[in-house]
User: Which sequence fits this backbone?
């Protein structure tokens, strides 16, 4: 069964160490710690058994068809965080979406679906080939990707959930799930999709309210995937690089090492020395997905048919290797 720690003090510590305010004065840190502890409510969760794995819809992903973006969108504000240009829009129903442009849109959409398919948490991401935005100003980043009439192409939209609030970030090295099977399984998933960008600031803790409050631990930025094993700003979602990358680099004494993330990426140890039993466990979950489900994840990301099959074949080969460990 999944180990679910409920010590809010530990949760608060992780959030403080990884929040933008880390490194401030002791008084400021103490105040932040108290505020975080008060904000955290319910158990911490990193994985939930995917009992419907064989029927999960990997084309529409966690949000399903019901949450698919459609209708009219109005510009709200530009987001200057991260390396890819982003901005927020509001749709005709008042739902806020974060639009990401650039070469992370496709791989992030596909990766979020595969991670979610085996029980981990992922944002409600959708790939949109053509998006028309009303009241679109000239952006400080990515202005060359926007047409004069406010049209942008090949973007990822992330839905903002009203009952969910980001509390902060969590660290791979000292989070509350460290050394659990589920934590190791997530490390395997990062290797499966060649996520070289596993820095702690790409991990988020969300407070979910409602009838069952809980803190969700997720990898919230999966844009650096399906390309080379190491730092590369241009080949994200690049089939040739993904297919030719080194997958399993070493197995010995009950542990397995993966090629992703490669040095000098931050937290490059995330793909190293993972218990074989835990890698095989997540491989057994992945093996329950059909070839169609796997390819649906890439179809959802707007890849052309030949690349959909190419990415799907590599994923299937890697799953087979996990089961054979």
Assistant:
């Amino acid at each position: 069964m999944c180990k679910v720690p409920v010590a809010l003090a530990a949760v608060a510590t992780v959030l403080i160490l990884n929040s933008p305010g880390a490194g401030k004065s002791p008084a400021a840190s103490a105040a932040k710690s108290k505020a975080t502890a008060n904000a955290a409510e319910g158990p911490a969760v990193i994985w939930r058994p995917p009992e419907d794995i064989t029927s999960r819809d990997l084309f529409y992903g966690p949000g399903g068809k019901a949450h698919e973006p459609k209708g009219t969108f109005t510009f709200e504000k530009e987001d200057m965080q991260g390396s890819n240009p982003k901005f927020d829009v509001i749709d005709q129903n008042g739902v806020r979406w974060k639009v990401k442009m650039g070469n992370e849109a496709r791989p992030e959409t596909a990766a979020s679906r595969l991670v979610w398919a085996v029980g981990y948490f992922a944002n409600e991401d959708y790939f949109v080939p053509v998006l028309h935005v009303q009241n679109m100003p000239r952006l400080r980043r990515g202005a060359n990707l926007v047409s004069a009439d406010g049209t942008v192409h090949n973007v990822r939209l992330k839905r903002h959930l009203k009952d969910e609030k980001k509390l902060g970030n969590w660290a791979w090295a000292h989070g509350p799930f460290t050394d659990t099977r589920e934590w190791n399984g997530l490390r395997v998933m990062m290797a499966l999709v060649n996520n070289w960008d596993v820095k702690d600031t790409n991990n988020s803790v969300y407070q979910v309210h409602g009838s069952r409050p809980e803190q969700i631990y997720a990898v919230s930025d999966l844009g650096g995937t399906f390309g080379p094993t190491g730092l590369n700003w241009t080949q994200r979602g690049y089939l040739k690089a993904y297919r030719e990358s080194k997958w399993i680099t070493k197995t010995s004494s009950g542990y397995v090492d993966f090629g992703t993330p490669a040095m000098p990426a931050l937290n490059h140890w995330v793909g190293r020395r993972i218990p074989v039993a835990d890698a095989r466990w997540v491989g057994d979950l992945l093996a329950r997905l059909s070839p169609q489900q796997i390819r649906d994840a890439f179809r959802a990301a707007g890849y052309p048919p030949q690349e959909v099959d190419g990415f799907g074949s590599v994923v299937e080969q890697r799953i087979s290797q996990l089961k054979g460990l």
The radius of gyration is 19 Å.
